[in-house]
Amino acid sequence: STVFDVQRVRADFPLLARSVHGKPLIYFDNANTSQKPQTVIDAVDEHYRRHNANVSRAVHLLGEEATAAYENARDRLAGLVNAASRGEVVLTSGTTQSINLVAYSYALPRLRPGDAILTTVMEHHANIVPWQLVAARAGATVKAAPIDARGELIVEKYVEMLTPEVKLACVTHVSNVLGTVNPVRELARECRRRGIPLLVDGSQAVPHRPVDVQALGCDFYAFTGHKMLAPTGTGALWARREHLEAMPPFFGGGEMIREVKFSGTTFADPPHRFEAGTPNIAGFAGVGAAIDYYASLGFEAVHAWEQQLLAYATARLREVPGLRLFGEAKEKEPVISFLVEGAQATDLATLLDLEGVAVRSGHHCAHPLMQFYGVPATLRASLAFYNTLEEVDAFVTALLKVRRLLM
Ligand code: PMP
């Protein structure tokens, strides 16, 4: 048992105090987006009240302050994932933009007809569709490594599929549907042996566990701010310096150039080369506060409490008659997908909402994974460190009740 003071933590999140449909809110849709602590809300508010100006363009004090907040987010994100330097962190609007940047700026110029990109069956569409788009332009293909019935990647198959025509390998660190933690270190080692760069989708890992990109040994690590307490429209791409230096810009515009002439424009060094236009400055002011908040709790403490919640919720859900769990990997983050026999996922989610419980139902932007399991949708309860064992109990009670209504 842990000394994690969840009631004190909850008091830092104003939204958690509200009710929905006259019931106390139980927010179990954290894999979709997390709630924000007051300190993050204050940082955004403070930015607009006191510091609002554009970045990098003005010599006046407000411009300097806004630039400092924005560049501070880069430092903090670099520290968060243990980048070798701040210059390896490109600030983006989120994982989707980060992966598209790699697709268009790194993969596309390197892909030749007959080449392939390797991904997996358990990926979010953000780690499938960008690869399909650039592969189609280049006459290349996208291959998907299989998973087993427990929802674990079949590592030997993934490694077998790392053939010479594969120019880039991709994998999610943690599945947004199954919660499965993939063995990224091992995959990175196998990729490196074959000279194939590895991109990791860290969207669902960074909110839950300490991440060290150097220890993982991957080449690209994409993640999103809004799932880790920060405002929406913030995210990052970490990439090895040599990759960023070899990448042409993807978006063109202000802020990313050295000199513009109609006879030819030269570009800024990375990471600014990839940050055209005015970014989400207020959002990035919130990123610093979000990382401070995690640091104040301690990632190890967060992880330990979430693992307790996961174990408890999984055990309680197993008591529900006719419940089928998806994803029983040995190592998981607190994401639980399930179906209940005789009831539609959407009907259950709608009735749960009336009980105050926010869960997601649907395909979770993972059609291939739904096809693998032969279901159109699942229900997904995704937990965060500010959730409680009492909420899990109330959720299971509500699920039993709405199940009876639908039987
Ligand atoms: N990958 C995974 C595994 C995700 O869970 C998500 C968000 N649902 C994304 C990518 C996309 O992130 P964003 O919408 O923030 O770009």
UniProtKB/TrEMBL annotation:
Highest taxon, organism lineage: Bacteria
Q: What is its EC number?
A: 2.8.1.7
Q: Does the keyword Transferase apply?
A: yes
Pfam families assigned to the protein according to its UniProt record, in alphabetical order: Aminotran_5 (PF00266)
Gene Ontology MF terms in the entry: cysteine desulfurase activity; pyridoxal phosphate binding
The answer on whether this UniProt entry bears the keyword Repeat reads: no
Q: Which GO BP terms sit in this record?
A: cysteine metabolic process
The UniProt record lists the Aminotransferase class V domain at 26-395
- What's the catalysed reaction? (sulfur carrier)-H + L-cysteine = (sulfur carrier)-SH + L-alanine
> What's in the keyword line of the UniProt record?
Pyridoxal phosphate, Transferase
Give the cofactors, semicolon-separated.
pyridoxal 5'-phosphate
TM ranges are none
**In UniProt terms, what function does this protein have?**
Catalyzes the removal of elemental sulfur and selenium atoms from L-cysteine, L-cystine, L-selenocysteine, and L-selenocystine to produce L-alanine.
The similarity comment for this entry is: Belongs to the class-V pyridoxal-phosphate-dependent aminotransferase family. Csd subfamily.
**Protein's recorded name:** Cysteine desulfurase
Organism of provenance: Fulvimonas soli
